[in-house]
């Protein structure tokens, strides 16, 4: 064994304690860490011919790289609908690496059973029926890709062929319909060989991002055969929701596969005041839910759900002498693109076991209230104007005067440089804008006040007692 590797093994408890202490320091300072750091190109070092050991590697990382990492796990990071990581999910993530289980095959570990239990808990949390089964994937893009792969196979089934065997070229013309599709839908269609151009956007309701049901009905009626419909349970700009029950009802007249992108909007189910927004979610044929958003687990965690696991096995089954054949309860190796992967479910299992439905409901409802609070502040600011109502946890707004892309980009750059908060630019209804996405369990009302003051360059607007 390499001498440095052998030394690190012998000192493992001490070294892990050093890592724990460093992690604790980072977490303790997270609230005041620079929320975003303007990237500065780093000069790469050559691969060392011999290693330096874990202690020196930690010191090198702390000196060269850590200062450039953002506080994205902290309370004022409002970009990309990025949740943080609850204490329990951090513990689960650490143990995931320590145990290093491959959850895809079911030959040597109970890890797949833990994943199945976690998926069951998530279905119950989100009010999705038992007819849906699921699997863990890396994020919303892969979840959407898996769901649309099943839709592609369903289209082939309608024509009496297996696309998994014959290939996408065997399909007749494919049409995908959606009102306000997320960019990952286009990416998934490209990867699946269906093609970005196969997606037709359907008119939305006036002043909304929700699809016009009558327009969708007419578009389906004009098609010569079955289609794929991608519905939204929470659009990225204004968190608008398609009427899922009304869309599902169209299947009485038109054949189509219903895929619902509910990456973060699915968690509206936890709030009694907002659960109506996801009514009908369980009627979908496939569902995308991203867990490293509002469930607040570390990155690389999402689930896909479907009521047609048979199609899923047909698409993703893997044949090898060292793997079992798909059974009544298939191994995950037969359900997703990966043949091997880490035990993604463990952080989610830990946070669900530790905090339960009520703990996560509290996160969701607090974030919704905080988004509303920032929206109220924006609505009375002379510098800004809201572009849409605050429906859930995202505030979409723009400059009151001259909202050009250069002007919005300048605001974004200034906020990033200040390090107090991080917002992403967007375009809504043709207008350059900003979006503030609340999904972090650490965010407090004091953070919202601080964010609002930074956005308004010191304007007093939240209450008469605010200090600049």
TrEMBL record:
GO terms for biological process: amino acid metabolic process; carboxylic acid metabolic process. This is Aspartate aminotransferase family protein. Belongs to the group II decarboxylase family. Its cofactor is pyridoxal 5'-phosphate. It comes from Actinomadura rudentiformis. The modification N6-(pyridoxal phosphate)lysine is found at residue 293. It comes from the Bacteria. It holds the Pfam family Pyridoxal_deC. InterPro entries: Aromatic_deC (IPR010977), PyrdxlP-dep_de-COase (IPR002129), PyrdxlP-dep_Trfase (IPR015424), PyrdxlP-dep_Trfase_major (IPR015421), PyrdxlP-dep_Trfase_small (IPR015422). Keywords: Aminotransferase, Decarboxylase, Lyase, Pyridoxal phosphate, Transferase. GO terms for molecular function: aromatic-L-amino-acid decarboxylase activity; pyridoxal phosphate binding; transaminase activity. The keyword Lyase applies.
């Amino acid at each position: 064994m390499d001498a440095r590797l052998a030394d690190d093994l012998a000192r493992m408890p001490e070294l892990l304690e050093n890592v724990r202490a460093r992690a604790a320091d980072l977490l303790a300072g997270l609230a005041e860490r620079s929320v975003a750091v303007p990237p500065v190109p780093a000069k790469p070092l050559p691969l060392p011919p011999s290693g330096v050991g874990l202690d020196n590697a930690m010191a090198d990382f702390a000196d060269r790289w850590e200062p450039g990492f953002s506080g994205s796990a902290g309370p004022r990071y409002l970009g990309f609908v990025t949740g943080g990581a609850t204490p329990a999910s951090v513990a689960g993530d650490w143990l995931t690496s320590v145990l290093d289980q491959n959850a895809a095959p079911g030959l040597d570990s109970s890890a797949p059973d833990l994943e199945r239990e976690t998926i069951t808990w998530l279905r119950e949390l989100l009010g999705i029926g038992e007819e849906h089964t699921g699997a863990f994937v890396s994020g919303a893009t892969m979840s959407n890709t898996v769901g649309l792969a099943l839709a592609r196979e369903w289209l082939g089934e309608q024509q009496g062929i297996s696309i998994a065997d014959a290939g996408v070229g065997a399909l007749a013309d494919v049409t995908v319909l959606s009102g306000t599709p997320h960019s990952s839908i286009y990416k998934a269609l490209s990867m699946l060989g269906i093609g970005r151009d196969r997606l037709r956007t359907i008119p939305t309701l006036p002043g909304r991002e929700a699809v016009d049901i009558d327009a969708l009905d007419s578009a389906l009626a004009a098609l010569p055969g079955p289609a794929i419909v991608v519905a939204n349970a929470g659009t990225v700009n204004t968190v608008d929701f398609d009427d899922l029950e009304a869309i599902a009802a169209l299947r009485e007249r038109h054949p189509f596969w219903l895929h619902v992108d509910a990456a973060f909007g699915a968690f509206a189910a936890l709030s009694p005041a907002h659960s109506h927004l996801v009514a009908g979610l369980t009627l979908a044929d496939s569902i995308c839910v991203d867990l490293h958003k509002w469930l607040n687990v570390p990155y690389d965690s999402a689930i896909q759900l479907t009521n047609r696991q048979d199609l899923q096995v047909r698409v993703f089954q893997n044949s090898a002498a060292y793997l079992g054949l798909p059974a009544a309860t298939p191994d995950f190796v037969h359900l997703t693109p990966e043949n091997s992967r880490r035990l993604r479910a463990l952080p989610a299992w830990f946070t669900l076991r530790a905090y339960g439905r009520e703990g996560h409901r509290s996160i969701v409802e607090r974030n919704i209230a905080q988004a509303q609070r920032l929206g109220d502040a924006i609505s009375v600011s002379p510098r800004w104007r809201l572009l849409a109502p605050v429906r859930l946890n995202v505030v979409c707004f723009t400059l009151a005067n001259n909202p050009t892309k250069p002007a919005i980009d300048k605001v974004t750059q200034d906020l990033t440089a200040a390090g107090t908060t991080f917002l992403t630019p967007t375009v809504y209804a043709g207008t350059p804008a900003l979006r503030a996405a609340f999904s972090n369990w650490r965010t407090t009302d004091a953070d919202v006040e601080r964010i609002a003051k930074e956005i308004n360059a010191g304007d007093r607007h939240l209450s008469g007692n605010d200090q600049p």
